[in-house]
Amino acid sequence: MGSVSLKIGDGTARFKRATLCSSAVNLLMLFSVLTTNLFALYAFNYAPKNHSNNNPSLTNSHELISEQVSLIMREIDSSQKKLAQMEKDLLGYDTIDLSKPNIASEIKIFLQHHPLPLGKDSKSGITEMVASVGHTCQKSMDMLSQYMTYKVSGPCPDDWSLAQKLILRGCEPLPRRRCFAKVSPNAGLSPFPNSLWKAVNNKSVSWSGLGCKNFECLKGKKLSRDCVGCFDLSNVLENQRFVKARGKNDFLIDDVLALGSDGIRIGFDIGGGSGSFAARMAERNVTVVTATLNVDAPFNEFIAARGLFPLFMSLDHRFPFYDNVFDLVHVSNALDVAGRPEKLEFLMFDIDRILRVGGLLWLDNFYCASDDKKKVLTRLIERFGYKKLKWVVGEKVDAAGSGKSEVYLSAVLQKPVRS
Questions:
Q1: 297, 231 in Cβ contact below 8 A?
Q2: What are the start-end ranges of the H helices in 148-275?
Q3: How confident is the prediction along the chain (419 residues), in pLDDT tens digits per residue?
Q4: pTM confidence score
Q5: For the chain, N or C: smaller number of CB within 10 Å?
């Protein structure tokens, strides 16, 4: 199992590299099997010369060998179990041990298997409800216990940042909780569609756990490569995105929608910043779900305040949608998975899964830090057999104002029919 690293903002989710250790474990197990076979072959086929059925010493020798083989077999069996457990621990697939001290009682209650109230389900054969929680939560049990320590039916702790840290460590999905989340007053919300480009009131979002405490503070910040001043909806750079091109890599929404032969109705925006792509699509009666986290800013609350649909999840999580449901998937630098091609493959296959046949994959200004990075992505796209409707590689000046020229890839690809 290779090393996987996904960086989103300042958070990083990692799976430890286990290739070398797993290989050593496999070699040890192979050596154990070979040793067992050799001893068994020796025990059952060894026969000294001039043997006699009435020779007591020969009988004793056979019994001694048999005892030794049995002892060796028990030792090997024990070793194999230990090695299997070691490999299981290395790969991170171990179940959560609820017998450890200082485990929050709410975790134990949540993870208990609860029988169905009406007994066995006749269609599925299921007899009990099994709770879902990320397997890597095992490696963050102290933080998870802190997250699950609260007063039942009382107010939840103001700890959304703790929950996000757990998610970025791969503890996803998080367990459910039996407490009431902190609410914001939702002051000054505008009706749809005026809400799409209306400034959001500072009091309508929670600023706990964030460096900035108002939108004025966020306006001039580069929160990511795709979000430079993206909370300033009056800024020309933001409110003209997707409708006015600043370079050849910037595709216009109307041009892309015209490429959808069967029409575009619903879409998915991965890492969509403050939701401006979804807002422009909403103006064209296209519903877009925006997947984002709250890294350094209240992205989810801001998107919701604009009357749009935010989805709070990391890119390590399998997309919670059925197969072949979206007409359009829009993604930019969320495809940057720290140079790990196997991680990019998992992400691309999941994107392909939720995109319908004939649907469009819009790769929007993907930053090519090197030729190797561009080649890896290009070869992967070619493996999927997508039709290239638009494909532009060009340079543009860094949006943060450094003046440095950078290489970007933009493309509109159409999912093919596969047998």
A1: yes
A2: 160-168, 215-219, 236-239, 253-257
A3: 344 343 433 433 333 444 444 555 556 566 665 666 666 555 555 545 444 455 666 667 777 778 888 888 888 888 877 776 665 554 433 456 777 778 888 888 888 777 877 888 787 788 877 777 887 888 889 999 999 999 999 999 999 999 999 999 989 999 999 999 988 887 788 999 999 999 999 998 989 989 999 999 998 788 888 888 899 999 888 889 999 998 899 999 999 999 988 889 999 999 889 999 999 999 999 999 999 999 999 999 999 999 999 999 998 889 999 999 999 999 988 777 665 778 889 999 999 999 999 999 999 998 887 778 888 888 989 999 999 999 999 887 765 556 677 888 999 999 999 87
A4: 0.73
A5: C
- Burial degree of 51 (CB within 10 A; 0-12, 13-18, 19+): exposed
Count the Cβ atoms, other than its own, within 10 Å of residue 64.
10
92, with CB counted inside 10 A (0-12, 13-18, 19+), is middle
Phi-psi region of 280 (alpha: psi -120 to 50; beta: other; left: phi over 0): alpha
355 forms beta bridges with: 326
Q: Which tokens go with 40?
A: 């068994």
Written in H, E and C, the secondary structure of 306-353 is CCCEEEECCCCCCCCCCCCCEEEEEECHHHCCCCCHHHHHHHHHHHHH
Q: What is the DSSP letter of 226?
A: T
> What is the CB neighbour count within 10 angstroms for residue 44?
12
Measured in degrees and rounded to the nearest 5, phi and psi for residue 10 equal -95, 0
SS3 call for 223: strand
Q: Where are the beta strands (DSSP E) in 75-204?
A: 114-115, 128-129
Q: In residues, how long is the chain?
A: 419
The CATH number of the structural domain formed by 194-414 is: 3.40.50.150
CB 315 within 8 A of CB 270: yes
| DSSP 3-state of 61 | helix
Contact 357, 295 (CB under 8 A): no
Q: Give strand pairing partners of 366.
A: 409
Q: Residue 351 and residue 353: Cα distance in Å, rounded?
A: 5
